[in-house]
Specification:
By secondary structure, the protein is mostly helical. It contains 4 helices and no strands. The longest helix is centred in the N-terminal third of the chain and has 31 residues.
Length: 155
């Protein structure tokens, strides 16, 4: 059986987790747009504040910082700094042919950590709360990368 086949339950688990993370990253872009429309601000480019069907009543201050919009952007930036490493480390980890239960704990644990990180960030919880969920995800990535390296080196 090849590692990258949906008949491989470890790969299938990875595909589900990776797809959920890809959809989360894409959803953050949509959430940013929704927040900008709700706030009628938080725009980044001057042309965004010009009169248009999407912005029928431009006003001063639409371009520039807006905490509600910027919070979503910070969440997305954090996703973009972390999720690609999960996607790569997880895919490489599949090649080590890990136990299915371990792979499920790692892949779904990562998804859960990122969703909990999102909830903590979007509701403005203390940094310490966010950091716990970020740390769990980061440790999962590190574990998968080190396990893959060890296997690749033949240990």
């Amino acid at each position: 059986m090849t590692d990258f086949n949906l008949q491989n339950p470890v790969f299938e688990t990875y595909v589900v987790a990776a797809t959920l993370m890809i959809l989360k990253v894409v959803a953050m872009s949509w959430l940013t747009v929704i927040r900008m429309m709700q706030e009628k601000g938080g725009f980044r480019s001057p042309e965004d504040a010009k009169k248009s069907p999407a912005n029928p009543a431009p006003r001063d201050g639409q371009v520039g910082p807006n905490e509600r919009v910027d919070r979503i952007r910070r969440i997305q930036l954090n996703d973009l700094e972390n999720i690609p490493f999960f996607l790569v480390a997880g895919l490489l980890f599949v090649t080590t042919q890990p136990d299915l239960a371990l792979a499920q704990w790692l892949f779904y644990g990562y998804v859960a950590s990122r969703l909990l990180h999102f909830l903590a960030y979007v509701t403005a919880q203390l940094h310490d709360v966010r950091a716990v969920f970020w740390t769990i995800g980061s440790l999962i990535i590190i574990y998968m990368a080190v396990a893959t390296l060890i296997k690749a080196l033949g240990y």
